[in-house]
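Q: What does the assembly look like in three dimensions?
Context provided by user:
Components: four
Sequences:
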Amino acid sequence: MNSIYLRVSYADTDQMGMVYYANYLAFFEKGRTELLRSIGLEYKTIEERGFYLPVLHAECKYISPAKYDDIITIETKLYEITAASITCSYGVKCDEKLLVTGKTKHSFVNKMLKPVRFPKDIKELMEKNLEEQTI
Amino acid sequence: MNSIYLRVSYADTDQMGMVYYANYLAFFEKGRTELLRSIGLEYKTIEERGFYLPVLHAECKYISPAKYDDIITIETKLYEITAASITCSYGVKCDEKLLVTGKTKHSFVNKMLKPVRFPKDIKELMEKNLEEQTI
Amino acid sequence: MNSIYLRVSYADTDQMGMVYYANYLAFFEKGRTELLRSIGLEYKTIEERGFYLPVLHAECKYISPAKYDDIITIETKLYEITAASITCSYGVKCDEKLLVTGKTKHSFVNKMLKPVRFPKDIKELMEKNLEEQTI
Amino acid sequence: MNSIYLRVSYADTDQMGMVYYANYLAFFEKGRTELLRSIGLEYKTIEERGFYLPVLHAECKYISPAKYDDIITIETKLYEITAASITCSYGVKCDEKLLVTGKTKHSFVNKMLKPVRFPKDIKELMEKNLEEQTI
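A: Here is the predicted structure of the complete assembly.
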């Protein structure tokens, strides 16, 4: 699991006085990028090698709202790996309170957006860091 | 079902050259607002009466990417109504091709964000416009 | 001058209950794209020809806030043309009331982001549609 | 002067492969909030006291693009103080290279959005931290 910390900005809020619901997906992206970096996979480098991880499916459960100026934690786990896809799971917290959970599934594709198998080094790093599916 | 048409702007895109995945949730919001308006419920007026429809759950399936300058259609349906929640379903199309589908579930709450029952007039308008759950 | 109409969405607002200040630049982009289209220049086609119009300078004057669900008008003019740049000016209105004004200056560059002269056809279409600088 | 560090995310980019021009204004907001916090003024607390700092004018000069995964620095200064407004100036850098500069001017208003004079404690903290206008 990888944890990052974010300060909620005014830009993130809506007139209900809380984080707009779509913005959690952008928070998930930040969590995902740092999870990959923490296991030795820079997403930027993956793209430079000609591979991409577009999103196939995303879901988000909103339990309690994050507010302006809150410092929130994004906890990201590598949840599942298949032949040509990965799934990450996310927990957004503030002061240990769980606010939002979610998952995103990504296909592994080449420049023509065709699904391809993971190169061996990427596969190995991912499998070594797969979390037990306790949630 | 209500349909709206949007032109994909540069702001919507990311460096993969397609619409960034979180932005479809903002497209869904536009579809939802116009669905409500089309059945006689202005969301702005709902808020002025002291009620809100925060999102409980959102999901999105990405089939094919929308690109810059595409004119996309957002088709929105009222999919399910419970005592204090509604679910909308969405289909995003371009030239009749289905790009993205999704659902959002909303609780019906008061100013203190406490779930409340729908006022009779709102409930009636919603129930009259509930779509058959064929999808 | 070209006019487009937009409905302010929840995504556009912040917790002050008005459109977040950065979002007007995205509104300007929509106005600019439609201005170019209206004079026969599709920005998408310009990019396909290998040219880009990145922003060199942007400014925005905030007179009165746009609110959720407002239908706003973006009026866009081609304000100035130089050898390798154009400037657009913008007025955002709601019910004839001026809310925001702005300008963006764009360089004309090739794929390597090097400034280049306008192709003759683009230059001619732009010059024919340059507005008198009365503002 | 206050400095903050940000990692450019995919959400920030557009299909030109660089940060979308409007997003720098959101970066400026983050810089401004931390500048205020660093001099003892939490913007959240200012709002809780019934005051707001809406933007009157913003401008942005784009020198060189920030790219995906860049770590950028936002340097923010308190540039000018008048009876009921403040101006902040910004410099966005990557590896010491200046990418973007800007300014935002803010009125100081009450809940009815009427301009008001600064409370003495706020005024004093701001004046003590006004930078010399060398830029």
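Follow-up: Chain A touches chain B at residues 16, 18, 20-23, 25-26, 29, 52, 54-62, 65, 104, 113 (CB under 8 Å).
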